[in-house]
Design a protein that fits this description.
InterPro entries: UstE-like. Keywords: Membrane, Transmembrane, Transmembrane helix. It comes from Novipirellula artificiosorum. The protein is mostly helical. It has 2 domains: about 1-130, no CATH class; about 135-260, no CATH class. About 70% of the residues lie in helices and about 0% in strands. The chain is built from 12 helices and no strands. The chain has helices at about 1-25, 30-50, 55-80, 85-95, 100-120, 120-130, 135-160, 180-200, 205, 210-220, 225-235, 240-245.
Length: about 260
């Protein structure tokens, strides 16, 4: 229990420090960068509380580190010098002078709690210093494909947005031709990859809640659904793009509107 509480306490302290920083800067975007790095902190803090790590546990920590630093560095680069994200700006306008306390609970506090809970398979595997399992191969494969979709999807979108001629237009090239959200799909695979690398026969039935919750967040809550609610009104041709392109799982586009091909 002390092991899990130590991890939660560390994440909570960092979240509070970042909350104070966000108040000073009047910008909550820093919380998005913290998302990836928080899991890295949990993984390595867990390792520091155990003995010599097995190869499986070391690989798991390395996988979390690669994923977390890639995501954090991309979001930091994307948000650098930019105004506060429209989601947080809308919250700030709605709550006025109370926004600081509201953001502590509903943004920083909630993210810290989710981070700790979603990382439970990782914490359990590292805490038990699990040995090799055939499921690790499946986990590596899912993680590798997921990182590819995340990294390549983000790069393709960044290059598309860098061209002023594409402003306000639909990105329907590369991986975005096969799924409207290759980065979210990649994240989905990454977290199931972590689960299969970490899972043990005596813990699968309750640690599986972590990748399930992450999947629900990506597809139904803060990922696809939230983003598309704004894209439909802001991006030219997005409704037509929705008709021919899979929302999440990649597949060839439908042949309803060839002008977007």
């Amino acid at each position: 229990m002390n092991y899990f509480l130590t991890n939660f306490g560390a994440v909570a302290v960092i979240a509070i420090a970042l909350w104070v920083f966000s108040l000073l800067r009047r910008n909550v975007n820093v919380v998005d960068v913290f998302w990836g790095l928080g899991f890295v902190v949990i993984a390595w803090l867990s390792l520091s509380q155990t003995g010599p790590a097995s190869m499986r546990v070391t690989c798991l920590a390395a996988m979390v580190t690669v994923w977390g630093f890639r995501l954090a560095s991309y979001l930091a680069w994307r948000n650098w010098g930019k105004p506060e994200d429209h989601r947080y700006a809308a919250m700030r306008e709605k709550h006025g002078n109370q926004f600081g306390w509201v953001s502590l609970v509903t943004v920083f506090g909630l993210q810290a709690l989710l981070m700790w809970f979603i990382s439970l398979p990782i914490q359990v595997a590292i805490g038990k210093n699990v040995a090799w399992s055939p499921l690790v191969i499946l986990g590596f494969a899912l993680w590798g494909v997921g990182i590819f979709f995340e990294a390549v999807g983000d790069l393709q979108l960044a290059r598309f947005k860098a061209d002023a001629l594409n402003r306000g237009k639909v990105m329907n090239l590369g991986l975005w031709r096969y799924t409207r959200h290759p980065n979210y799909f990649g994240d989905f695979l990454v977290w199931w990859g972590f689960y299969f690398v970490a899972v043990e026969p005596d813990s699968w039935w309750w640690t599986i809640l972590s990748p399930i919750i992450m999947s629900v967040l990506l597809i139904r809550v803060s990922g696809v659904r939230l983003l598309e609610s704004s894209l439909r009104s802001r991006v030219e041709g997005y409704e037509q793009y929705v008709k021919i392109t899979s929302a999440f799982f990649p597949r060839p586009p439908k042949h309803v509107a060839s002008e977007l091909a």
